[in-house]
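Section 3.1: Structural characterization of target chains.
Under the original work plan, the team committed to producing a structural model for every single-chain target entering the pipeline before any wet-lab resources were allocated. The record below documents one such target. The sequence was received from the expression subgroup and is listed exactly as submitted; it comprises 465 residues.
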Amino acid sequence: MKSIIISFCISILSLVSFAQVQLPAIFGDGMVLQQQSNIRIWGKSNSKKAINVTTSWNNNQYTTESDINGNWTLKVATPKAGGPYEIIISDGQELILKDVLIGEVWVCSGQSNMYMPMNGYTNQPVFGALNDIVMSSNSNIRLFTVKKVTSEMPQDDFEGEWEESIPKNVANFSAAAYYFGRMINKVLNVPVGLISSSWGGTRIEPWISANTIPEFEFIEQKDMEREGKHQRPTYLFNAMINPMAGYRIKGFLWYQGEANRKEPANYKKLLSGLIKDWRNQWDNQDLNFYYAQIAPFDYMDAINSAEIRQSMLDVSLSDVEGIGMACLMDVGEKDNIHPGKKKIAGERLAYIALNKTYGLEGIEYSGPILKEMKAEGKFLKLIFDHAENGLTTYGKPLEHFEIAGENKKFFRAMGHLTKEGIVLFTDKVNHPVAVRYAYQDWIVGELFNTEGLPASSFQADNWEN
């Protein structure tokens, strides 16, 4: 009799535990759904249960059935930006998602410069953040921070919750992501959802899925193992990206690279691979992928971080559609790897999105990009894209250009601006064939277009350094 009672109690507890639909953390009160899309919603219930989803913006009802393991998924259509709305999900008992907005959703990821919150790190402030935090109350900006965790195998959920943009929440949210979202919200006048999934000090390899990671060689594999699980290939993708793969978004923001600076050639392949991989995981090759180039910093070793900046520049100039790079050559700090001007980083990413994703005309989104190099005797003439209104140094001399002849020896060149671009000269090179700009570890770039966006450091040769 006692065993029968125990079995009965266990059965009742089981029914109580699984009588209501269970949703991943990414679906919750206050969430933002991508506008004008067929979005996927998924969750768990009991085996072979009828699942009904009703959306308040059109009162449509969508129906599916959970599989033998209780998993279910369906798609619902979203309208133009607006809200708040409710979503009712029922398997016999109702679960109501409240305060749901429809707008633009972006996933923001990377290492410490993306993770860096508005209230900064110890002794490392975000410039101007206090004023922006105080004025950050905005019911149309929603924030989601994924809790840091690792996993050897892909997971179907993580910890986190949607929060409204109010000072106490904004203070602890990614500064670069917040400034991006604030500008998108203000310019487009639509709700914006920002999902921050970042971890300081991490390499790019942990963020790539097991489907793609075998394509790459790992020079520092032993070091990655020694540094901890958060540096192992796929471990962060499994735990912090995979649970939301398929959640409809507009695109990705990426701010990472410092941890991979010693292998710039490999990073070029890895970054391209990450872009392809995440698009595959979302089953959408049109997803936007915009990233911040790492800023100059004095690493105090023999590695020239200009080389990984070049790799990041090269990826942005590839023929892959829907990508873009925000250059930060003017905001680096010699003794601080976490530049405090995060507003500049976030807003430069927003310029790219506003132009390339949202079609805002009349704005520039990139600094000058070398288009053509032409030697005329001892003079080297440079012409740039993204410089329709010309170039400027804001009154500073052009000090960071070097040119070389066939002997591959570079010498500092004098330069001046012209209507067409730049003319360089040094009496140490009779027949210039190559040029480099700001190609040093720590440096402050001086070349901008007249819209105020800086040129990246670059090399116009393929010689080994």
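Residues 1-19 have pLDDT under 50 and may be disordered.
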